[in-house]
Amino acid sequence: MSTARLALAAGMILTAAACTPPAKPVTDPKVDAVLERSRTTRATYAAYAWVNVERPNEDPTVEWSAEFHSGDKHRVETPADRIVADCAAGTGKIFNIASGEVREGPEYARSACGVNSNNELLEKAHVGARQTPTGPVDRIRVADAELVRIYDIDQNGVILGTTFKLKSENNKTVLSVLKTVVEGDLPAPDIFDEASLQRSVVPDRYKVAPKT
Q: Can you give the pTM of this predicted structure?
């Protein structure tokens, strides 16, 4: 998943990065097409995920995460944050649940709309196509200065699986999706409005970790 990514959970894992010289962008037409599909989809969907997260000095935890999309609008929810974004306009707002603070900026749209594009990708590889219970996906592997990221992305641009590995700890897995459920209906019509950031729209049944 995005979404939702998921990028927010990774932000809680990582410490602030030291400044590094800009790297030369890498291209891979097959990977670039999958990345673009995730970032420009206009499909309507609700994707609910259960995510295993490992943070420094804490036991691993399983947390819920959710992403919603329709047209150009996207929403991400985790237990800590909520984001709404206009992917075409490149604008986004984030609500921190603990502090009650709302911040806005294009970086929140870049983190929410498909595969996170806030960090320059230094590596790209198309791992292969595979079948899932909900249809075919492309598995891609990308890496920035800190993370190796593996995504399973379906034909509509929905991120169904995500794994993050931390380079500084010998590619230790720090985030992985255990299960994703995708539905074609949104839980409410106003979930992309800024006012909706004040409430969770994730059904209670999707806030319970799956049995393993």
A: 0.86
